[in-house]
Amino acid sequence: MKMVIVAGTPGSGKTAVLIHALRNLKQRSLNSAVVKIDCLFTDDGKKFEKIGIPTKVGLAMDMCPDHFAIYNIEDMIDWADENNSEYLIVETAGLCHRCAPYTVNSLGVCVIDATSGPNTPLKVGPFLSTADIAVITKGDMISQAEREIFRERILEVNPHCKVIEANGLSGQGCIELAEEIVKSPEVSLEEEKLRHSAPLAVCTLCVGETKVNKKHHRGILRRIDGFQTYEGE
Amino acid sequence: MIIDKITIIGGYNKKGEKEPVEKIDIIRGEIFGVVGATGSGKSSLIGDIEQLSQSDTFSKRKILVNGEDPSYEDRTNPRKKMVAQLSQNMNFLADMSVGDFLSLHAKCRGASDKCVNAVINLANTLTGEPIRKDHELTILSGGQSRALMVADVAIISDSPIVLIDEIENAGIRKHDALKVLSGHGKIVMVVTHDPVLALMTDRRVVMKRGGMDKVVGTSEAEKSLSIKLNKIDEFMLSLRDKVRHGEVIEDVEMGDLGL
Question: Per the CB < 8 Å rule, is A172 touching B57?
Fold first, then answer.
C-alpha cells in the first residue's frame, strides 16, 4: 500500500488537483481510493465518485480533524485494501497549519494557493516545511514575477521539497503529481510514525471549557509574552 | 544561452482529437501571433510554452529548444528560465511595496538590485500617473500595474523567449510596450484579439477547440494594411490623450489620416 497525505488550506485546490492526478492514475489502470476528511460537511466525496474512484468521507465533528485523520489511518488502510486499491489518498481538512499529518513513509503533499500572498509560505509551518511536494495552485491568477517570488519563498521554508506548479481547472502540472504518487514508497503501519509532533495542547479548552477568563484555565498554557506555564496539580 | 529556435510539437485538442498542426518552428527574431475566439486555447498554448511542456500537460504538447529536450533545471529554476511571460492579469496581489517587490524578484532571477530604479523609470514611460518606489503594489491602477509588469519582464526577466497575453487590454501604450518587450534577437509570441497587432506579426497560429488549427503567414496585402491600421491607431491614441487632458476635439477629415 502506498499512502499519499494531502494537506492545504481550505479552498486551495486540493480536490481539484487530486481529481486530475487520480484520473491520470486510473487511465494507467492504477487503483486508488480516497478518504476525504472534513469537519462538519463536505460534498467533495461526490466529485471523486464521479470519476469512478472509491471514496470514503470522514467528518471529525468536534474533534481536531488532523488528529481524527491520524487516529483513523489504520482503518483507512484496511478499507483501501478491501477495495483492492494500491494507493490510499487522504485529503485532510486543512485548517490550522500547525499539524502536519504526514507520516514518515507517506508521500506528503502540501497544496498552497499562490494568490494568498508571498508571505504565506513563511506563515504556514510544518505542513509545508515537512512536505515532500509543494503544489502551487492558482498561479495563472498572478504575474510571473509574483509566481517566482512565491516559489522562492516556498524553497526558503522547505529547501528539499519538489515544487509543482499546477492548475486545478486545466489540470496543468497534475500529471507530474501523479508521477510522484507512483514513485512514492510503500508504507507498513507497524513502523509508521508522524514526521512532526502534533501541537502541545492539553488544557481545559481541550476538554470542553467554554469560559474565557484566565482563572478557569488549567494545563499547559502559553502566554502571549512567550512564557509557558503549567497550571494545576 | 542563445536560443535559435523553439519547436512546438502538436498534441490533442479539448475533444481529445489530434491537433491539425503537428509542428511549428519559431526562430530567433520572429514575432509570432496566437489568435482565436475566447476559450479556444490561446492561453493554454502560451502556458505550455512557459512551462516548456514535455507531453505532461493535458494538451500533451511537447516543446523543444534548439531542437532538443530542455533539462528539468532549465524548466524550473527561475535563474535559468528561458521564458518571460506577461500574462493577462491586471493587478498585483502581493502585499508589499513596489521597491521591495522588485528587489525580491531581481534576487529570484539573479539580477542586480540596480534594476529596481530602471524598471520603475521604464514603467513610467508607459503609463499616465507615475509609480513610486514606496507605493504599495495593491493600490496601483490597472494601467500602472500592467506598465510595471511590462517593465519587469523587459528588465528583470530578460529572457530569450517572451510571451505576451493580450497586451491590448492593458490601457497602456501597446506599441511602445511591445517594442520594449520584443528586444533584438528574441522569440516573441503575442496572444491578441487586435488586428493591428495580429498583422504586425510574421506568422500567426489560429486556435480552435483547444487545438492549433492552422498557421497563417502574414501576406503582403496584410502587411500594407497593417501600416494603415497603425496610422488609424496612432490617430485614436492622439484623440484619447486629448480627451484625457480635457481638450475639445475639432472635426477631423478622414483624408488627413493619409491612408
Answer: yes
Q: Which three cell numbers stand for residue A185?
A: 514508497
Sort out which chain B residues have CB atoms less than 8 A from A24's CB and list them. none
Q: Are B19 and B11 in contact (CB under 8 A)?
A: yes
B127 and B239 housed in the same domain: no
> Cβ of B78 and A115 within 8 Å?
no
Q: Does one domain contain both A6 and A104?
A: yes
CA distances from residue A211 to A216, A231, B142 in whole angstroms, order as listed: 7, 16, 48
Parent domain of B236: 220-259
Write out chain B residues lying below 8 Å of A171, CB-based: 57-58
**How far is the C-alpha of A64 from the C-alpha of B37, rounded, in Å?**
48
Contact A144 B93 (CB under 8 A): no
Residues B3, B62, single domain; the answer is: yes
Quick one: B40 and B134 in the same domain? no
Q: What is the pTM of this model?
A: 0.85
Same domain, B16 and B61: yes
Mind listing the pLDDT tens digit for each residue in B56-83? Answer: 777 899 999 999 999 877 887 766 778 9
Alpha carbon separation from A123 to A102, A155, B62, B104, B243 (Å, rounded): 18, 13, 37, 18, 48
Q: What is the pLDDT of residues A164-197, one digit of tens each?
A: 999 888 788 888 899 999 999 998 888 889 898 8
Would you call B58 an interface residue with chain A, using a CB distance cutoff of 8 Å?
yes
> Which residue in B87, B93, B95 is closest to A144 by CB distance?
B87
The CA distance from A7 to the nearest CA of chain B, in Å, is: 23
Q: How far apart are CA B247 and CA B166, in angstroms?
A: 30
